[in-house]
Structures are given as structure tokens and as C-alpha cells.
Design goal:
The structure is a single chain. This protein is an alpha/beta fold. It contains eight helices and nine strands.
């Protein structure tokens, strides 16, 4: 009798657990469906805003667009527009996921284009989050999400991130904005702050660049294991790399 009663209780518990699992799965399904619906609606608004911003952007060279992102005279909307224009100018088909295809230097100040392209995504997201307009949040999320679809961009600019990455993630999470894979990646190291790009100025010995964990850039301005330029992320400087020299002193005869 007792064993029969125990079996009945076990059946009841199993039934309750199964029902709870079904309810949880229903809730999860409804949550996912609602999230994807919101994302679809957000993408439409983001596309519309993207077209508006492209029309409003200043007619400048990529270098001029990049420098405009740091001026105090322009409004956040104009800066967001110029960031969108910079992204369209530097990335193939305006897609931040194709960051590895960006190469070269912005003239006249010899600024590495791959680093300026990353500035466009970061600063575009920051300025869009300030707008409070329909589609702005969704467009900011799309820029960062597309950028992270490049594994090399993610490793270079997010695994080791600037101070502003934490601000972007904090604001995104506050607004309930998350990438499609569900969670913002954690920065393993925070080094320096925006902008990433700077003009190449001065020289540094290769040994010092290695000792101080600078990032080498190749002849196309792209981060590489070795290169002819060194990017000091801590202090926001980019140098020409020179080989160490040994100085020989010759004594003079009296």
C-alpha cells in the first residue's frame, strides 16, 4: 500500500514538472517571438533613419568626416550622420562586418583607415544612443552587432576595448538592447579611449614597442603580428617603427 502511495506521489511530481517545463517553454517561446518582432520593427525604423542620415551628412572626404566626429560645433545628429557616411565610405557596401577589407590611410594626415573605420562604428553608436529618435537605438545596435560579426574586429576592438565600450554596453542594457546572440561580449582588457585612429607621428624602436605591448600595423594600416607602424593604445599615438641603433663613440686625439 505504501509503495503504491509513493508511486502515485512520484507520478504527480513528474506531471507537475512536465507541466512546469511546458509552461516555461511557452513563456520562452513567447519572449523570443516578441523579441524578434521588436527587432524586425526596429530594423525597419533603423533603415529609414539610416537613409535620412546619409542625406544629411556633410559632403566631406573620409578624413573630413572622421575629424568632424570630434568637433564641438556639430550636433549629435549631424555627428551621427557623418559617422554613417564615414562607414559607407570606408567599409565595402557600408557593412561593418567587412572590417578586414578596410585598408590604407586617410590623407592629408596619414591616419590608418582601419582604425578610423572602427571609430566610425563606436562613435556612430554613441551619438545615435543620444538622439532618442525612432530607429536610433536599433541602428546603434545594428552597427555594433555587424561590427562584432567580424571575428578580427571583435578581437581587436572589443576583447581589448576602449573605456567607451563599457558605456555603450551599459546604455544598451539599460534600454533592453542585446545582440541577436543574446549577450554582450565581455572585454578582457580595457586599454585607452577613443579615438582609435591618430595620425602617424614620430618614431619608436621595435624593441620598445614590443616591451610596451604596442600593436603593430602593417603597410595597409591593419593590425598585424609585425609591421612598420606601432599603435600605442594607452596614450593614443601611432609611430613609425625603427630598428634599434647602436651608437659608436670615437675618441678625439688632443
Amino acid at each position: 500500500m505504501r509503495s503504491t502511495r509513493v508511486c502515485l506521489w512520484m507520478l504527480v511530481v513528474v506531471a507537475l514538472l512536465a507541466g512546469g517545463r511546458a509552461w516555461a517553454e511557452d513563456d520562452r517561446f513567447n519572449e523570443l517571438a516578441e523579441r524578434y518582432t521588436r527587432r524586425a520593427e526596429g530594423r525597419e525604423a533603423a533603415r529609414a533613419l539610416h537613409e535620412e542620415l546619409r542625406y544629411e551628412a556633410d559632403q566631406r572626404t573620409p578624413y573630413g568626416l572622421w575629424t568632424s566626429l570630434f568637433t564641438k560645433e556639430l550636433s549629435p545628429r549631424r555627428k551621427a550622420a557623418n559617422a554613417v557616411a564615414l562607414i559607407d565610405a570606408l567599409y565595402p557596401e557600408g557593412d561593418p562586418a567587412r572590417w578586414t577589407r578596410v585598408s590604407g590611410f586617410l590623407r592629408p594626415s596619414f591616419v590608418p583607415a582601419p582604425l578610423a573605420a572602427a571609430d566610425g562604428v563606436y562613435l556612430g553608436a554613441l551619438y545615435l544612443l543620444r538622439l532618442g529618435e525612432q530607429g536610433a537605438d536599433a541602428l546603434a545596435l545594428d552597427l555594433m552587432e555587424r561590427f562584432m560579426n567580424s571575428s578580427r574586429a571583435k578581437f581587436t576592438f572589443i576583447t581589448t576595448s576602449p573605456a567607451e565600450y563599457g558605456l555603450i554596453v551599459e546604455e544598451m542594457e539599460r534600454r533592453g538592447l542585446a545582440p541577436v546572440f543574446g549577450q554582450w561580449p565581455e572585454a578582457k582588457r580595457t586599454v585607452g579611449s577613443l579615438p582609435f585612429a591618430r595620425p602617424v607621428r614620430g618614431t619608436v624602436r621595435r624593441g620598445r614597442a614590443i616591451d610596451e605591448r604596442m600593436t603593430f600595423l602593417n603597410g595597409a594600416g591593419q593590425p598585424a603580428s609585425n609591421g612598420i607602424y606601432a599603435w600605442d593604445r594607452r596614450y593614443g599615438r601611432i609611430y613609425d617603427v625603427v630598428e634599434g641603433r647602436r651608437w659608436i663613440l670615437f675618441p678625439w686625439d688632443d
